[in-house]
Design a protein that fits this description.
Layout: H1 2-12, H2 17-40, H3 54-89, H4 95-99, H5 102-122, H6 135-162, H7 165-185, E1 206-209, E2 214-219, H8 221-231, E3 234-237, E4 244-245, E5 250-255, E6 266-269, H9 278-292, H10 300-317, E7 326-329, E8 332-336, H11 342-356, H12 361-377, H13 381-401, H14 405-430
Parallel strand pairs: 3-8
Antiparallel strand pairs: 1-5, 2-4, 2-6, 3-5, 7-8
Helix pairs in contact: 2-5, 3-5, 3-6, 5-6, 7-9, 7-10, 9-10, 9-11, 10-12, 11-13, 12-13, 12-14, 13-14
Organism: Deinococcus detaillensis
InterPro entries: DUF2254_membrane (IPR018723)
Protein name: DUF2254 domain-containing protein
């Protein structure tokens, strides 16, 4: 069921999905309008309904159909131009954020459904004696035409804002923060601090090799726990959501044997997706910063914006409990799986920025400042040690390539502030 819901969700965000649904609904509505008028006619007290004749209805419906499909082509062209700009300046992996945007889909759907509605109604207009004019549908076509005008104005404003770098960064920040909050809320079923079994525990277990390849998009943990509990076995996964699974590679070990239907809980696909893949949104933001720091773009302000959003997400997490990937049921070990931890998360956030931004003092200084603020939000000693290690690497890389004495002094001052904060927190904990 989880796999089916996942596939439906992935289908619903496709660029064509909303326009297709709106077009089908428009055709159904057009048919209902024609049938309604053929059965009951038009009451005289409905004065707002179109009251023209056959020729006027044909001209009106033809004009609405022609103009709506023409403007739809213009809207599509603007969308392609926006996608080309996004791919060049922000990275091709962000194209999905634009094609899945509901505002873009609704705008295109409005124009296409209006065209389909008008064209279907036009075929119902008949001459003869007496002629048949679908007054309800013609009136609705007028309303849809006005809606197209409103949607065009909305779209021009929406597409202009959607390619703003700040809005894109904020949107990615929201996705990343929500994914991290959801992950840290997940609690395993074992006792707090449950230790993983020794590596030799899995020696001699039955192995599972991947029958196909692709990114692990969805991992149904509950289904795995259910299957392992039913077969009274322990299962160790070697892959996590976001990992690329190679064909015939070892992905799981079961002791004393594998439970049945392990692959039913693993959904593979050609692309990475948000949700369980905690590092995907982080990598998208990191890529924006890395492109901004490239010599061809040279936009440290965008990189600083990304660093600020990373600090926002880390301070939102604060000292939440991270899943350890060890699951018990009825006091029996049932599942062990790799998970993203705090150290790995910081590496994905800051490694590329540190490597590409070492020669930009403004980026390095802001990175140390954000690490300082993040350290002030945390109380866990191990996580502060991770921050200290990243600060050491940032300082080392920056001082190696920074020649200006003033910039070097600023970097040393920010690093000293962070170190004093960490040392002061350690003194408080010792007391």
């Amino acid at each position: 069921m989880n796999r089916l819901l996942f596939r439906l969700r992935e289908l619903s965000v496709q660029f064509w999905f909303i326009p297709a649904v709106m077009t089908v609904l428009a055709l159904v509505l057009a048919e209902l309008g024609v049938k309604l008028e053929e059965t009951y006619g038009v009451p005289k007290w409905l004065t707002f309904v179109y009251g023209g004749g056959e020729t006027g209805a044909r001209s009106l419906l033809g004009a609405i159909a022609a103009s709506s499909i023409g403007v739809a082509g213009t809207v599509f062209s603007i969308t392609i131009a926006a996608l080309s700009y996004a791919a060049g300046s922000m990275g091709p992996r962000l194209l999905g954020n634009f094609t899945s945007d509901r505002g873009n889909q609704l705008t295109l759907g409005t124009f296409i459904s209006t065209f389909a509605f008008s064209l279907y109604t036009l075929r119902a207009v008949q001459g003869g004696d007496p002629p048949f004019v679908p007054h309800y549908n013609t009136t609705a076509a007028l309303v849809f035409g006005l809606a197209c005008v409103g949607m065009l104005v909305y779209y021009l404003a929406h597409i202009t804002g959607s390619i703003s770098m700040t809005r894109v960064v904020n949107s990615l920040r929201n996705d990343m923060r929500q994914a991290l909050l959801n992950a840290t809320e997940q609690q395993d079923q074992g006792p707090p601090g449950a230790a993983a079994p020794p590596d030799n525990f899995w020696d001699g277990g039955e192995e599972l090799h991947a029958p196909s390849s692709g990114y692990l998009q969805l991992l149904d943990t509950e289904l795995l726990l259910k299957k392992a509990g039913q077969d009274h076995v322990a299962l160790r996964l070697l892959v996590r959501p976001g990992d690329y699974v190679f064909p015939n590679s070892l992905i799981a070990v079961g002791v004393p044997r594998l439970p049945k239907g392990v692959m039913d809980a693993l959904t593979l696909g050609d692309t990475r997706t948000t949700g369980q893949d905690l590092e995907y949104s982080v990598r998208q933001l990191s890529e924006v910063a890395a492109r901004a720091l490239s010599p061809g773009v040279n936009d440290p302000v965008t990189a600083i914006d990304v660093i600020d959003r990373f600090g926002d997400a880390l301070c939102s997490l604060q000292d939440r409990r991270w899943p350890d990937g060890i699951f018990y049921r009825d006091k029996q070990l049932r599942l062990v799986m790799p998970v993203t931890d705090f150290e790995g998360l910081l590496a994905r956030m800051f490694d590329m920025i540190r490597q590409y931004g070492a020669g930009s003092p403004s980026v390095t200084i802001r990175l140390l400042e954000v690490l300082t603020v993040t350290a002030s939000c945390l109380h866990d000693e191990q996580r502060r040690a991770v921050i200290r290690r990243h600060a050491d690497m940032v300082r080392e890389d920056a001082l190696r390539v920074t020649e200006n004495s003033g910039d070097r002094a600023d970097i040393e001052q920010r690093y000293s502030t962070l170190r004093q904060l960490l040392l002061g927190r350690e003194e408080v904990l010792r007391r």
